[in-house]
């Protein structure tokens, strides 16, 4: 027998004793999303019948969201990995351009020495700019993550998870 058809979910209304038969997929609906026939008779969800589905569709939806969630996580990790690679390129570029020992400097020809010396004089300006840009970018990124955590109400969920309540 199909697992979806075996699922028994009680209506959240304590006065109702029947099992849930429907799910509401209207994003702006404020009523309980899982309900049965009596809830419809009471007028719940009548303003958006096009968004009502039978219970098996809920489980299909949950499976789709589970896959989409994993895809999103993979994409976010790819983005961070790409940023990390770019950051490492920046670090290596700075190191190769500005970090020279006296011995390395003395192996350069006079044109290379002059170029390196000019760049080294401008290093302080570059350092201030790159630090400010990187700090601002990181702050913007952290603020964006903070907003996502708040908008998605993930703090409460993470606390429950850390305390083994989920």
List the helices and strands and how they pair.
Layout: H1 3-6, E1 22-24, E2 34-35, H2 37-41, E3 52-54, H3 55-98, H4 102-106, H5 110-121, H6 123-151, H7 154-162
Antiparallel strand pairs: 1-2, 1-3
Task: Please tell me about this protein's structure.
The structure is a single chain. With 166 residues, the chain is mainly alpha-helical. It folds into two domains: 3-56, no CATH class; 100-166, no CATH class. 65% of the residues lie in helices and 5% in strands. The protein contains seven helices and three strands, in the order H-E-E-H-E-H-H-H-H-H. It has helices spanning 3-6, 37-41, 55-98, 102-106, 110-121, 123-151, 154-162, and strands spanning 22-24, 34-35, 52-54. The protein has a three-stranded antiparallel sheet with strand order 2-1-3. The longest helix has 44 residues, at 55-98. The protein is rod-shaped.
Decide which structural class fits the backbone.
mainly alpha
Give the CA-based shape.
rod-shaped
If helices are DSSP runs of H or I spanning 4 or more residues, what is the number of helices?
A: 7
Strand content: under 5%
Q: How many strand elements?
A: 3
Strand order of the largest sheet: 2-1-3
| Helix share bin | 55-70%
Cα radius of gyration in angstroms: 29 Å
For the biggest sheet, the summary is: 3 strands, antiparallel
Query: Are there runs of 5+ residues with pLDDT below 50, and where?
Result: none
Instruction: Work out the count of structural domains.
Output: 2
Average per-residue pLDDT, rounded, comes to 86
Instruction: Spell out the helices and strands N to C.
Output: HEEHEHHHHH
Beginning-to-end CA distance, first to last residue = 28 Å
């Amino acid at each position: 027998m199909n697992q979806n058809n075996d699922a028994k979910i009680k209506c959240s209304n304590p006065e109702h004793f029947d099992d849930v038969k429907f799910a509401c997929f209207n994003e702006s609906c404020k009523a309980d999303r899982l309900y049965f026939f009596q809830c419809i008779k009471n007028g719940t969800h009548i303003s958006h019948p096009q968004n009502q589905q039978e219970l098996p569709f809920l489980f299909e939806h949950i499976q789709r969201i589970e896959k989409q969630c994993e895809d999103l996580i993979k994409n976010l990790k790819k983005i961070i990995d790409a940023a990390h690679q770019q950051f490492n390129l920046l670090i290596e570029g700075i190191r190769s351009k500005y970090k020279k020992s006296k011995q390395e400097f003395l192996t350069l020809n006079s044109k290379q020495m002059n170029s390196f010396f000019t760049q080294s004089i401008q290093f302080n300006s570059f350092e201030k700019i790159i630090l400010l840009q990187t700090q601002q970018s990181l702050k913007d990124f952290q603020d964006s993550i903070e907003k996502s955590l708040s908008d998605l109400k993930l703090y409460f969920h993470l606390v429950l998870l850390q305390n083994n309540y989920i």
